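quick q for whoever's on today - can somebody do inverse folding on this one?? i tried earlier but teh output was garbage lol. tokens:
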């Protein structure tokens, strides 16, 4: 559920990777780029990243809820800016 709300905040459809260890995959991609195995991050990703059939789609109601909450947060932040920086 948390994932669905978070992706709704970006209003994007999200594909699920087949890889469980995302940090390791990222490290592999960047290392292979650094040693010259691949010429670009895009090329490395095209070779190394595989997606499952599962896709999360944002819920329109969650998008609207997030936008409302975020607008309240921005207003609160402006009113409490000096206190926020202390935290």
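ok took a stab at it. sequence:
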């Amino acid at each position: 559920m948390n994932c669905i709300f978070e992706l709704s905040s970006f209003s994007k459809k999200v594909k699920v990777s087949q890889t469980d260890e995302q940090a390791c995959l990222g490290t592999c991609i960047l290392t292979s780029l650094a040693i010259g195995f691949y010429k670009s991050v895009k090329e490395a990703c095209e070779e190394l990243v595989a997606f499952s059939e599962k896709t999360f789609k944002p819920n329109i109601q969650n998008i609207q809820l997030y936008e409302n909450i975020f607008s309240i947060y921005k207003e609160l932040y402006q009113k409490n800016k000096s206190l926020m920086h202390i935290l």
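fwiw Helices lie at 2-10, 22-34, 41-48, 60-79, 81-86. also The longest strand covers residues 51-56. so keep that in mind when u check it
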